[in-house]
Fold:
Amino acid sequence: MYSKGKKIKNIDLVYAGGQRPSTELGRVYNYGGSKPEGGLWTSPMGESGKSVWQEWCENEGYNTKYYKKSWHIVAHDDCKILVVDADLSNVEDYLMQGDMGYKVLDFEKISLDYDAVYFPDDVVSLYNYRGCLRGYDVESCLFLKPKYDVMDDAEYKEYTRKKIEDERREVEEKLLYEMNNPRFAMKKMHEEALRRERQESLKKHEEKEVVLEKVVEEKTEVINENTKEISVAEKRKRAMLRRIAKLNTTRENGVIKPKRTKLEKAYLVMMDRLKNR
Structure:
């Protein structure tokens, strides 16, 4: 429904109410609840052509007569909009203790840094019945300062037509400039070639990394297998040495010699030779 940054201003925002909203806003005040006094509440346009707030009111049967009229709200290019994150991490510094025993947004403090606050649909759904956004039923945008234009349907249609024409003209002028300036066109072709070369180089690098990871995995498996074999052989060797030591002890104490394996006998002969040197 939305994306952060400049694209947030391209959303079709709608104000629903009894009369055309003013482009002059007074100061926004906190009153201890989850919503402030003042500001201009708007909502994005839904699939029906009405705002999602109007759709919610019709579904809930809430004050439908008052919210029949609507106007298009277009944010200025320099309007700074705070988009609330799903985990509320970017509004932690704007929370204060409310009158109902839970924390709420400090809109007076927000207005010092931003011109509007946008509440995405997923955030509203998550915190509507708990926390600082209780009572927020639909996706909405609250303007704290008059950084917007108000238009009726005819005005908004003309605005949209003019905007499309301006964008088309900008593209045409850019293409014409490139055609009339071979050096610029060559520069763009060179940049495109470099971009493709970087992409291919990155792809080859990623492929090499995949192959290298596979080789490392295979070598690791071999090393683990060898380590396992060495550890088993070492255990057998230590067990054999312990048994030989036990045999030496029994021989020194005059105990009858038990049966020995050929390898154990060879160890004993070798140890005797070393002692007699």
Remarks:
- The first strand starts at residue 13 and ends at 16.
- The radius of gyration is 39 Å.
- The CA atoms of residues 7 and 77 lie 10 Å apart.
